Amino acid sequence: MVVEAEPNPYESARAQLESVADELAMEPWLVDRLSQPEREFTTNFPVEMDDGNVRMFKGYRVQHNNARGPFKGGIRYSLQVSRDEVRALAMWMTWKCALVKLPYGGAKGGVNVDPRELSSSELENLSRRFFAELEPIIGPEVDIPAPDMGTNAQVMAWYMDTYSMTHGHTVSPVVTGKPVSVGGSEGRYAATGRGVSYLVNELAKRRGESIADLRIAVQGFGNVGSVTARLLQEAGAKVVAVSDVQGGYYDGNGLDIPTLEAAADEYGTIADQPIGADPISNADLLEIDCDYLIPAAIENVLLESNADRVRASVVIEAANGPTTPAADAILRDRGITVVPDILANAGGVTVSYMEWVQDLQSFFWEEEEVNRRLRRIMLSAFDEVWELAAQRDGPLRDAAYLIGVQRVIDAIRTRGVFP
Ligand code: GLU
């Protein structure tokens, strides 16, 4: 048996690209170009802490490809942030934006910090200083950051203000995922989870299942997991298990999601709530008896070591990169349908695009309009992926990659190589 080495997300991302290179007849230089980022930026920067001491932090912005438009992608604050993690996340943004036909390339950023250890003013100081460091390489037509794990709308507001101060006027389209009061879009907060819920409803329909009969487990109870769980419960599904890093619950009759959302808001975790359900760990959740498993937290949770114990018949990757290539092969052999991350979680960047368009036009839409457009974009991408997968009699991930990567190489070939 091959023992799985510490899975490196950048290696996974490269392997996924290479798996479609032959079928797309990619020239070797194109594989080489796309299997690494166009540009990488690292900054070591100081932040003054509340006690007057100055601490150093390390941050990254990796710009994978911009053949289809400005670089786009979130900024993550987490102790797990590394150059290779950000490289992988940037590459996945390129395919994701192409798959849902947004006129963007892909990028990602991150700071190696646990934001929960910072006070609000320390978080503000860190965010402003990091964004000031990024100033030379970003801009509304260049590279447009957004929230990701550990960041939120308030952090985006500080970013936007910092950039605007150095430019002498308000530049709202430099970042998306902002509060509505400063140029954010209606519907952006819930967009990723809403996109996931549209796909779950559609997939159930195609599989001849009724949403009311589905038992769903969601790993992660942040922005994506909590909204996904709530919307699926509202749609009639039974959300039987949810968890965050500190713990979670299982109840075969369905959990009370609004109560857990209130707990997450108040305590920053859903663990240790007296809700009368069986306590489970974040790892247990992946092996729980359910129909649809939705990893909505971090990468590398479905591994060669646990993929054979997944009991769901469908995995929806609301997180980026939750399944390693080795685990993916096991799930495939076991006949488990996997809706890949670049499709499943594309709702967030899709509404980011709508926010950017609204900011550029200074003309704002109602939430209904945003959700309607989101639904159309998600379902049309799903349809294309589903059709190609059926035609090839292959997995949804390969179909999604074939479509996304094809669009990027079309753009590169059409533009040609600058002398
Ligand atoms: N961080 C989100 C993602 O991974 C959203 C990116 C964006 O809105 O630009 O897709």
Jot down its keywords.
binds glutamic acid, alpha/beta, 7-stranded mixed beta sheet, Rossmann fold, 5-stranded mixed beta sheet, 419 residues, 12 strands
Structural class, please? alpha/beta
CATH superfamily of the domain at 191-344: NAD(P)-binding Rossmann-like Domain
What share of the residues does DSSP label as strand, in percent? 15-25%
Described by the principal axes of the CA atoms, the overall outline is: globular
Helical content class: 40-55%
Q: How would you characterize this protein structure?
A:
With 419 residues, the protein is α/β, with parallel strands linked by helices. Among the domains are: 139 residues, Rossmann fold (3-Layer(aba) Sandwich), CATH 3.40.50; 154 residues, Rossmann fold, CATH 3.40.50. It is 44% helix and 17% strand. It has 14 helices and twelve strands. The strands form two sheets. It has a seven-stranded mixed β-sheet with strand order 9-8-7-6-10-11-12, sandwiched between helices. A five-stranded mixed β-sheet has the order 1-2-4-3-5. Helix 1 packs parallel to helix 3. It is globular, with a radius of gyration of 20 Å. The site of glutamic acid has 12 residues, from strand 3 and helix 12.
